[in-house]
Amino acid sequence: MEAETFKDHKYKSTSGIHTEKFQKLTYKILYDLYPKYCPKCNVILSKGVKNRPDLVRCGNKNCHHQVSRLSYTPLHHFKLPIWMFGYILEESILQFPKVITSVEISKRLSISYKSARLLKQRLMVFASHQMEVLRKLYYNDLKETFKDVTLPKVEDGKDVKKAIGKKLYRKIPHTDTAVLYSASQRSNQHRKRFRHGGLTASIYQSDSVGGKQVGILISTIATQNGCVFFDSIPDQKANTLGTIIRKTVPYESPLFSDEGYPWLWGIYKKHRAINHTAHSKDNRYKFARNRWSKLSVHNQVAEGNQRLLKSAFSAYSYIKPKFSQLYLNELAFYKSIQVVGMDRLVSAQREGFVRNLPIISKLSHNFEQSTK
């Protein structure tokens, strides 16, 4: 190249980003996951409008119905260049388990922090929509996989992995709970937390200083090399955890956990638990060697995903409990979509696994989501 060509070249903050590619990617996602229908012809709107890329129109020559691609989607009233959404989405999936914070988005795209934060919110709302579909896909897969599978009885003392085989064993869901951003004594003005027990003692302040929730308690349901689901919960009661497990794991499926779920025995016939506090029969030792895994029963898949979650969330200084579910859905989506794939996600929406969106997403400061 000649020197004059270099002389006329101007540096741009986004010069290394293929903006046209990510613009097409964003429009492809909107077309597949948030399709627009013609009210007269009852077909999906697929034709573009010249010089107005955000519009889509009916392909029928006798019909002139037009509508915005962005209306009633997570990109409702989106003011940034459209390619930025596709770019950050792809980067977030590729960089998993590392999360991309609002500060990083601001620096990478050379936009203000406020704009980056709003873009981050839109990504979280988008991920929350898709987790509803992924959860139903996961439920149906487990129901089909384990409908004719029987586990050996606990009293028989047989190894579960050998009984059902490695292929089915890897598909068994594991569940556990963990705490993020626990309340320290400093947040309680150095008072003892005597009104709560268990993990909830770490997330609530003392009643004498308000008793509000400071930390985040999460429920994890995960499969080895498969989907993961994080849910923000206020406590570990059966009515709270049971509702989440029931909509994620069918009755036909096995389920591994620790002994914090004693009420599951009469509901899930294939539920197995591992005793983490099992004592050794040898007086020289306090705990037994098999307190982490016994007869191939353990919940280390859920615990491993919680370790990943804690490492990822260390990038955030703090998350308020009322916003926690959006952050959890975002991280769970980035992991689950790599297993399921976008093609299956799209076909599931088209086949009616969930009701067709539109969903109006109120992207205000309190992250509200409402369904129309």
TrEMBL record:
Q: ISXO2-like transposase domain: which residues?
A: 195-336
The record's InterPro entries line, in alphabetical order, gives: Tnp_ISXO2-like
Instruction: Give one Pfam family.
Output: DDE_Tnp_IS1595
SMART domains registered for this protein in UniProt: DDE_Tnp_IS1595
Domain of life of the organism encoding this protein: Bacteria
Its name, as the record gives it, is ISXO2-like transposase domain protein
- Species name for this entry? Leptospira wolbachii serovar Codice str. CDC
